[in-house]
Amino acid sequence: MACLCACATTTGPHTRSSAASSSLDRPVRVAVCQTLCIDSDVEGNLRRVEYALAEAARQDADIACFAETCLIGWINPDAHRLAGPIPGPLSHRLAALAREHDIMISIGVSELEGADLYDSALLVGRNGEILLKHRKINTLAGLIEPPYASGQVEDIRVVDTPIGRVGMLICADTFIDSHIEAVAAQRPDLVLVPYGWAADPDAWPGHGESLAAWVRSVAGRTQCPVFGTDVVGSVSQGPWKGKIYGGQSVVADGQGRVVEVLRDRDPQVRVFEVTREGVAGAAD
User: Which residue, of 18, 45, 50, 163, has the fewest CB within 10 Å?
Assistant: First the structure.
């Protein structure tokens, strides 16, 4: 989504005694899977997710991270007819992919509950179990009709997993102090944030700098590594029709330093190794 201000704020960090307070007891390999999303092309988008999962698994990743609503498309009104409940057919297919490739998955999805459409994120275990579901809270009014329903701040959770304590937010959730504080208070080892970072075509590649600023801010305030995964593609409908998702996914360490930015407007799978000492790009 487009940045709503020039830079990220850095006030009010959660205090953590040291990097050694992490519960990580072994190196964790995290794959950032920056895929192409074509609005409404559910089968094609699933195929691209599967290709990325296979590559992440080939590189021995423990978890593969994907972008916001990357199966149907963000602010895509077709989601009202293409999305389904969770658990439901699409989440079952993601669970099957997790089992097939023996890998955890973090992914942004469109979720229907009755007549309500949610912009959600799932954390799926290697066995296909849904370990965490987060519904986007800061949904940004006026970009899709009928609008997204909103999640609740009190539902923000961090969960214990085989790769440590994991928290999730979605894109514009990271603009709100109370959302970051709710995650930080639960002392995560990793925060995973699916993004849909869009702007006019001529704003790229420079628009990626604002994404890096927000990811860096969240990492500094939660004092843990943050993986902000963006998508490649374009908005097909509504008031933002024609805006471009430019990739440039961002990884930041627990000191709020950018470790790496992925390619501009191009799909890429990149694996990082997380230890108690920090984050580094892993050799292929």
Answer: 18
